[in-house]
Amino acid sequence: MSQPNDQWKTKIGFILAAAGSAIGLGAVWKLPYVTGMSGGGAFFLIFLLFTLILGTSLLLAEFAIGRKTQKPPIQAYKELAPNSAWHWIGILGIISSCLILSFYAVVGGWIITYFFRSLSGSLTDPAAGDYEVLFGSVISNHWEVGIAHFVFIIITILVVQGGIQKGIERVSGIMMPALFIIFVVLVIRSLTLDGAMEGVAFFLQPDFSKVGGDTILFALGQAFFSLSLGVSIMVTYSSYLNKQENLVRSASSIVGLSILIALLSGLAIFPGVFAFDLEPNEGPSLIFTVLPAVFSEMAFGSVFLSLFLLLLLFATLTSAFSLLEIVVSTVAKNHPQRRKAAAWIGGLGIFLLGIPSNLSYGLLSDWLVFGNIFFDNVDYLVSNILLPLGALLIAIFVPLKIKREDLKEELLRGSQLNHGFFNVWFITIRYITPIAIIFAFLDVLGVW
C-alpha cells in the first residue's frame, strides 16, 4: 500500500531531509567562522558535547510532539494542551522561521551571485584584488543581489509546492549525497596543501586556556542553531512520520550527519586558511573574502571554489525548504489542494519581508536601529532571542504537558533501548536542558 504524499516515502528520505534542514548555513558558514573566532579545537569539542547531549534531547522532544499528534506545530500544541496559551510556541516558531528565511534567502542570493562569478574564473583571478572590497561591492549592488535573492526564493517555492515526497524528499535525496561527495573532494584537496596540518591542529586540538564563559555559552547556542531546534521545524517534519518509525535511531542519524558535516566543514576550510597564512577569525565574511583568496592560490582553484559554492548553495536550500514548509504545513497539511497557493503566497511574502535585509548593505545602509543595519538586527533577534526562547519553551512543555508514560511509549516504540535510556533523556530534557538554555539566554541579554 503506497503512502500518501504528505508522509515521508522512506526512512532515509526523512533522515536526509531533516539532516538537510540542520546542515545549512549553521554548519557550513557559521560554525567555521565561530570556531575561528573562539579559539578552535576547544570550542569545537564543547560544541560536540552540547550537540550530543542537549541537542539530541531537544530534537527527540520535538520528534515526540510531531509524531504523536501528526499535526503541524500550532495544531499540535493545541491538541496536547487545549484551552491554554501553549500554542503560541507554534506561532513563535512560524514567526521565527519567516524571519530566518527572510535574511537566509538574502545570503542564499549572495551565494548564487558568487557561484556564477566563480564559473567565469573571475573570483580567483589575481586581478580581482582585495576580496573584502569585492564582497562589499557585490552585496551593495541591489539589482544583482536582488535578482539572486528572488531566484533563491523561487527555487525554494517550486520544491516545497511539490509536497513532502515529490518535492522536499526527492530534491533532498539528490542534494544531500551530492553535498557529501563535494565535501569529501574539497577535504582531500585541502588536506594535501603544504602547511595544512597546522589548520587541522587548530581545528581539532583543544586549547582550554582559551575557554571562558562566553565560549561555553556560544557553543551551546551553536549546538541548537546547527540542528534547527527551537522553531518547531522538527515538529513539522516528524508529523509526516508513520507511527512505526524508530525516533531514537532517526535522531541519532541526524545528529551524526550534522556532526560529520561540521567536521568536514572545518577540515575543508582551516587547512587552506593556515596553508596560505590567513587569519581564521575573519568572522561572518570568511567564505566570501578568505576562501576566494585561498582557492586563488590553488591549482584549478576556480573549479574547487565553484564546487564549494555549489555545496553551500545545496546546504542553504535544504534548510530553506524546512523553513518554508513549517508555514505551508500550517495551511496545507492534509489539504493538498492548498499546498501550491500556500507555498507561493508564503514564499513571496517572505521575499518581500527580506527586501530591507537585502538592501541593508546598499540603499538602506544608513538606516540604523540600535546602531545596527536591518539585516544584523533581524539576525540578532532570531539567533539570540527567538531561537533560545523557543527551545526553552519546548523543553518545558514536553515533560510538563505530555504524560511520562506517553513519552516513553512514543520514544521507545520500535526501539531496542531499555527504560534506562528514557529515564536519562527525561532528566536531561526536564532539568538540564532548560537550565542550560536559561544560562545562555541570560548571558545573551547581558544579565551578567
From TrEMBL:
Keywords: Membrane, Transmembrane, Transmembrane helix, Transport
Pfam family, any one: SNF
Protein's membrane topology: Multi-pass membrane protein
Residues making up the signal peptide according to the UniProt record: none
Keyword Transmembrane: yes
Residues passing through the membrane, by range: 12-29, 41-65, 86-116, 145-164, 176-196, 216-241, 253-276, 303-329, 341-361, 381-400, 421-442
Localization, UniProt: Membrane
Gene Ontology CC: membrane
PANTHER family tied to this protein: TRANSPORTER (PTHR42948:SF1)
Protein name: Neurotransmitter:Na+ symporter, NSS family
Species assigned in the record: Alteribacillus persepolensis
Lineage, uppermost ranks: Bacteria, Bacillati, Bacillota, Bacilli, Bacillales
